[in-house]
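User:
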Amino acid sequence: MKHIVIIGGGFAGVNLVRKLARKEEYTVTLVDRNNYNYFPPLVYQVSMGFLDPTDISYPFRKLLRKNKNARFVIGEFQKVIPEEKKVILSTTELKYDYLVLAFGTSTNYFGMESVQRHAKPVKTVNDALELRNHFLQVMEKAALTTDPEERTRLLTIVVVGGGPTGVEVSGLLAELKKEVVPKDYPEIAGKGFESHIYLVDGISKVLAAMSDQSQRDAYDALVKMGVEIKLGMQVKDYVDDTVIFSNGETIATKTVVWAAGVTATVTEGIPAECYGRGKRLIVDEFNEVKGMKDIFAIGDMCIQTTDPAFPNGHPQLAQVAIQQGSHLAENLLALAKQENRKPFRYYDKGNMAIIGRNKAVADIPKPKLHFKGFIAWFIWLFIHLTFLISYGNRVKTLYNWVIAYFTKDQSLRLILRPLKKEEIS
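Assistant: Predicted structure:
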């Protein structure tokens, strides 16, 4: 039995390992820096206290426990040695017959070191917990301060990035401001203080990947909810609690939520000519890395220009990763049986974004349909529930959503952080 090593347990990696885990043709080792899979589209709801981390996460070992030819290894991927067919992890070394790189992307700060140090990303579960703690600590400080300028700075939030994550974070913040803050923080409610939620982007539209109608609907909905949208404004820096834009404008704030884009990571051992736009690995129609034998890349970290419908590469979306993972599994099984492989073709099922309670937009390409409001909101909820990895995740998430829907509230606003040794007496 040949050995497949899969680096990364996101959408692409998990779909690949689940397709191969019970097949007799291969043994499979899944590698990830975390010991759990998590659902990135709902990370922002963890950061806002609407979901618990366990609602969107699931242990890899539990996922694979019934599959004798699949195992999990925890470790940080460091490099590959193609001539030895070996990968080096922070914890061990592994030999492979086929290597699949599927560890996704990281937050792109566009070279701004100060932004990277001080802004808050919303990409991982760790990011979500840090952001949740930050939000709650900021609110507690705002409730105590008597300085109007400091209070305004504490209660002003700048969300950078007008894609789905930025739109969804902004909408949820607006709902918290309206429904939760007056109940939980009477010290700052109704006193005439200034509070702002800004959504900013360097281009001239929100949800640029969606239809014009979705862009207009999302923009109008956010404005009605009280979000102040600033488009065509590029962030130049974030220093001394001040966001500085390229046009010279500034916004004083203690909180910058960074949702402005992602970038792939260069893999040690892969030649420079294998990389394309955004440091994504160039792959052929079978997702094999350009110029590399028996090394594949799937998901956000690869760029494939052989699909006639997407000559400039596929969008970095969950659906692409899911389909590439499943398709690569079929091709690897075909290799084992010495059958012809099939080129990857992405089937676009549409895009959607939630804005708030009963507010969302959805675009369906075939047939060409656009939905907004309650219908789009319901579609979004249903699709995201079905994508969660286990029934337990779906039940817990649905429960929290139902409670939040009827009460316009949630009970997960807890400041949880490990105590430092000097704090323990």
